[in-house]
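Troubleshooting log. The previous structure file for this entry was overwritten by mistake, so regenerating from the original sequence record. Sequence copied from the archived sheet and checked twice against the printout by T.R.
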Amino acid sequence: MLKRLVRAIAMGSQDDLDRLADSIVETERNSGHSRLASELESILDDKQKKKRSNRGGIDSNRSIRELPISRRHQEMLVTFIAHDALEHHIVLRRDIDERFERIEKEFAARERLSAYGLNPRKKVLLYGPPGCGKTLGAKRIAWNTGLPLMKVRFDALVSSYFGESASNLRAVFDAAREQPCVLLLDECDFIARSRVASKDIGEVARIVNTLLQLMEEYDAPGLLVATTNIE
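Regenerated output below.
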């Protein structure tokens, strides 16, 4: 068990540490050390309460009750990734890493900032060439803020039917208000390059206008992250 403990510390794995702590509690209880087991369990419970408090009461692994779907084709409009399932290890240049940290720290301190009339940033734009780590960067933000990630599926969202794409977009943003999360608009410029553009009947303009309006009015309890290859 000591080897497992040291290995978990060396790897920086909070999940492994939590599982090991539960295992220690169970071992002590089975050994007849009920009082010690109860004390250890109480310490773990306090830690979980403190973690939830730091996240503003957010349960980071609770899935959304009803993920948004397109009405016509009944397709999922988002991909939902629970907090524990997120990839998040990324090596960044120091100055870029500091920018990420500031976003994460502002979110963690949002209640204290609010008490002083200050609002942490809730909208982030990541840009750069393909493969530079924009999507992974969004996952890192979700991980460090204790939030799940909800990635918009533009391929399912965009429709050639009049007004349907805008309706799908609103459904996605409504879902983000129901469940605190990092709402990821990956390659958000996809809309202008979508299949609708080739047979445009004014639908692209409506989608873009709706998206810009929803982004401008975004005030959900989580974070909005958009990525683009265009600088």
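Confidence is low (pLDDT under 50) at residues 52-58. Archived copy saved in two places this time.
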